[in-house]
Amino acid sequence: MKVAFLPIDNRPVCYTLPKIIAGIDKNIDFSLPKREFLGDLNKTADINALFGWLENLPNQDAIIISLDTLIYGGLIPSRRGKETLDELKARLKQLRIILQNKKAKVYAFSSIMRISNNNYNEEEKEYWAQYGKKIFEYSYNLHKNGKALTDVPQEIIEDYLNTRKRNFEINKIYLDLQKEGLFETLVFSKDDCAQFGLNVDEAQKLEALGGFTKTGADEIPLSLLSRVINKKLKIYPVFLESDYKNLISNYEDVSVENSVKGQIELAGCEVCSDSDNADLILYVNNFIERQGEIVMGVDTDNFKGDFKIPQKPYMIADVRFANGADNEFVKSLFKNHIADKNFYGYSGWNTTANTLGSLICGAKFKFCAENYSKENFKKLQITRFLDDWAYQANVRQMLAKPDINELSLLMKEFEPVVESVLNSKIDVRYSYPWNRLFEVEVWI
Asked: How many independent structural domains does the chain possess?
């Protein structure tokens, strides 16, 4: 099968992670654009080069497209960019012509512009540093109550609302194109959600028009990659804190249980009601009362007890904490021999949706592989444990700034543990792709 994949940007979870997962089946011919064509934290993607890549692709069975990349130059530029609606429509017209000439099934996603509840403008417009929380509150109250008062300057509110309106109009055009049959699947992503907000309001309006929305963002291309594998696995979810599966994770607007169900279904799989008839068991290390987040100093009850390895294929979503693993759970997990044929993956990456979408994709590729690559599956697991557990839940807290030498030295303590657990020799180096502590790249 030939599959082309256009990522959101050049981060490792967007660029190298799908490549590793696709490599689990050696029969998948996987195409990516050059990494330098894609955007980063401060650089917009080379849109012309990406259009050229897409137009010159040889025949494919499936094309997975992050629409924000082609139309805005990336997820972050979609919030910052100053292009007019007419300029964006011109790019969309070009995309339509290219895709109409392709015989491949097209799986696409577009973001509903997020509203961050903080005064942190690293990924937003400059005024977010002063007014971010107030804009969030304005948005929240406007949606909840139909009106809102704010002391944010009127010109800033108008700029913000105009950017939202522009992006919403583009999303409605995507929906029209889907109804014409251009897209096999179209997903609108809800990134960093709360219960109320203009982003939630837009999602509801798109749903009323027939659109499909999903909480999450970065993992959605991976969920679409899962969907390309046309086999509906039966997945039985087991919540380690079953009394608390109705709670809502940080940065999301649905319960953990509904997030799990939604990610299973988006991946083209089926939620199974019992373990006997399931192909895979999905263990969810969910939280009590609230989701923790180590880097933000938000604590929660750690996993207590022993995790028992089942006798049938299983995978593990570690979502007790956002942005990293639960150390106590990983400690319990590592007491077991997990590097056996029944182990289909671990993830504790970022949000609950990020964790689930990436985890299910890797597991589905392993389960359905026509020409299985044990090497790539191990590479995937090494990456997840070194990133989600060693770095995010431990080493990151020891660092004041990105420093490769200090990082490499601190990670040395954890590498032998992962080697032993996965029964695999590790030759690894690290980098900070966006020169910030938030993400690290694990090079194997």
From this structure: 2
| 397/391 Cα distance (integer angstroms) | 8
Q: Give, as one character, the DSSP assignment of residue 248.
A: B
pLDDT at 194: 76
- The per-residue pLDDT for range 83-128, each reduced to its tens digit, is 999 999 999 999 999 999 999 999 999 999 999 889 999 999 999 9
Cβ atoms of residues 125 and 158 within 8 Å: no
3-state secondary structure at position 393: coil
Local structure of 31: helix, strand or coil: strand
List the domain range (segments joined by +) for residue 137.
Answer: 2-225
Reported pTM: 0.95
Per DSSP, the residues of 202-222 read HHHHHHHTT--EEE-STTHHH
Q: Which of 194, 225, 256 is the last residue of a domain?
A: 225
- Cα 355 off chain centre by: 7
| Residue among 18, 27, 30 nearest 371 (CA) | 27
286: domain CATH number?
3.40.50
CA pair distance 422, 18, nearest whole angstrom: 21
DSSP 3-state of 27 = coil
Dihedral sign, Cα of residue 344, residue 349, residue 352, residue 354: negative
Residues 124 and 66 in one domain: yes
Task: Give per-residue pLDDT as tens, 329-368.
Answer: 999 999 988 988 999 999 999 999 999 999 999 999 999 9
